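Continuing the series of single-chain predictions for the mutant panel. This is the parent chain; the variants come on the following pages.
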Amino acid sequence: MQHYLRLSIPITLLVSGWLGGCSQQNSFTATTPQTSDVPLTQVRGQEENIVLPEEEVVIETLAPGPEDAEPGEISDEGVQTEEKPTLTVILPSHDMRIGSAPMQVTSKLSTQVEAPDVRYVLSGPAGIELGTINAAGLYTTPSQAAAEFELTITSIWLKDETVQGSDKLKVIPASQIFVACVKDSVSFPITADVYTLPVNTSVLPDFAQIPNAKVAKVCMDQYNIATRDWTAGFPGVANLFEWFGLQTKATLIVPTTGSYTLRLTSDDGSKLYIDQQLLINNDGTHSTKALEATVQMTAGEHELKLDYFQGPRTQIALELFWKVPGSASFVYVPKAAFK
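Parent structure:
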């Protein structure tokens, strides 16, 4: 806190070395009373150079008002100044596919444990539908989109609308297979390293032996690529639609202990590993073909690796089904089974 002297003094000041660093004494006479506010620390630091007459010297301490106190300090009037709280928007995932179940958005205020009263606002590219978010923070995607887009979800504290927080969400079209990876994605937990392969490749390579052929890393939410023409390429590598390989990895969540039959369908070659053991070998250059294998698995997490390569253009396929204990039919291994 800065304190001041208010001096009301008709005085003669003898100043030693104040002007230009001179060694001789210089003096001036104040013929009329002068009033000025001088920082107390300055006066104390130079008091040996001041000669005062017998006239009265009035000393006042000028304390700053509440507006001069730092946030969180207590002013001399006893007023507690308040720091503005921080409002944080929390998303369970920073990417989301159109048509997915609604996403619960929450907000956290730095100064309280309970959930704050807020309202939400969506903003994003002009001219497209952004989806909706209700008062409880439940975000629903639009029904469709021609391409992926990024929107901003802003939370505004109702008690003080200058306190706001925001976060970004990437919205992915339902038809888009591969997406750019987002760290710790819940929506797209399968990672896939993309490699270019020599023309006329006929079997899966050992990807560990060709690290320089890796050109991208993308993510998926499911192995559900039914036979189709493929000319879309990959995020960041748009012109790659033949002679490429994928080394995909994920954690497989098995719901119950028992016997599982898995079916791997691909065009061209593929191999499925569970817990580092080769389970299905569907390698080679071929049109769409399915192979099956049965394995005993315990409930919980298992390491899954699925290698795939595409030969000549243009059709591709990569599907993974399972028949769970007690069921007579195959279904796609669901999105919820990957982590």
